[in-house]
Amino acid sequence: MTYKKEEDAGVPAKAYSVAAEKPANRPVKSYRCGNFSGAIWSNEKDTKEGSISFLTASLRRSWKDKAGSWRDETVNLRKNDVAKAILLLGKLQEEMFFSEAEDNE
Where are the domains of the chain? Predict the structure, then answer.
C-alpha cells in the first residue's frame, strides 16, 4: 500500500510505504515446547504524560486440523496476568493428576 505525504514547506509530495516507515513488531524473546510457543513483546502507549513502554506475553498453541491446515490459538497476557495464569494452570494440572490417580485405584 502506498500513500503520498502532503507537501511540506514547498517540498514536493513523496510516495512512501507504511510498512517501510514502521518496522515489523518482533518478540523480544520467544520459547517453544512441543506445539506451544510463548513470546515476550515490547509495547508502547501514548499517554498525557508522554509515551510509556511495557511488556506483554503471548502464549500460542498450534495444531493441524482434519484437512491438514495449520491452526492456532493465541492468548495475550499483561505482566500481572502471567502469575495468575501460572497459578490457575498449576491447579488444573493438580486436579487432573489427582483425578487420574483416583481412576486408577
Answer: 2-104
